[in-house]
Amino acid sequence: MRFYDSVGPNPHVVRMAAAEKGVTLDTIKIDILAGENRQSDYSAKVPSGGTPALALDNGLVLSEVTALSEYLDEIGSGPSIIGATPEERCETRMWVRRIDLGYVEPMANGFRAAEGRPMFAPRMTLMDAEGAAQLKAMAREKLLWLDGLLAGRQWVCGDRFTLADILLYCFVKFGATVGQPAPAEAAWVAQWCTRVSQRPSAKA
């Protein structure tokens, strides 16, 4: 099993999931800044050109961070980051979807259309400056919404540390490095980030 890794929040999600599950990854670094992920050797394996990806010993190549994280959850050891019961699994996936669609997508697309424009403009249609600002505003609004819903909880799913925490943490940390820090009034997010950062997996 080989893990195609790179810079950015998406690979960080999978590295954290692997660390939580005690899975050691045989890693190959892909230089996305140099466009290595768009070259034929990689794009033949992953048509989207995205990172990360996981090449299994049987030749199957898997991608998409939530799918990879769920795969690692099933083959790894220790507490599940998805859930032990149908209800827990549904709750985790509910929050993952809310975080992914509501916060991750506008935040990441706002970055691509603004700070990341030199890298992304040659290969995809992007919003203009006004659109980028609107996307960032949407992400900020949704993060404050999540902050209000989650106030008083230890983790996104209560007392269970899950993929929802991993996904949100990796993108909140990334946002802080590309001009989209968490709003100062998001008190729960700030305290929760501190708790997540103290987990060994956060450094993966």
Write up this protein.
The structure is a single chain. It is globular and about 50 Å long. α1 (9-20) runs parallel beside α3 (65-75) and α1 packs antiparallel against α7 (163-177). Helices cover 52% and strands 7% of the residues. A hairpin with a 5-residue loop joins β3 and β4 (61-63). The two termini are 18 Å apart. The protein has eight helices and four strands, in the order βαβαββαααααα. It has a four-stranded mixed β-sheet. With 204 residues, the protein is of the alpha+beta class.
Summarize the structure.
With about 200 residues, this protein is of the alpha+beta class.
Write the layout of secondary structure elements.
Blueprint: E1 2-5, H1 9-20, E2 26-29, H2 40-43, E3 53-55, E4 61-63, H3 65-75, H4 86-113, H5 117-120, H6 129-150, H7 163-177, H8 187-197
Parallel strand pairs: 1-2
Antiparallel strand pairs: 1-3, 3-4
Helix pairs in contact: 1-3, 1-7, 4-6, 4-7
Key phrases:
alpha+beta; 204 residues
Helix percent band: 40-55%
Q: Which strand order does the major sheet show?
A: 2-1-3-4
Mean pLDDT: 96
* Distance linking N and C termini: 18 Å
According to DSSP, the number of beta strands is 4
Radius of gyration: 17 Å
Low-confidence stretches: none
Biggest sheet layout: 4 strands, mixed
**Based on helices, strands and strand pairing, what is the structural class?**
alpha+beta
Beta-strand residue fraction = 5-15%
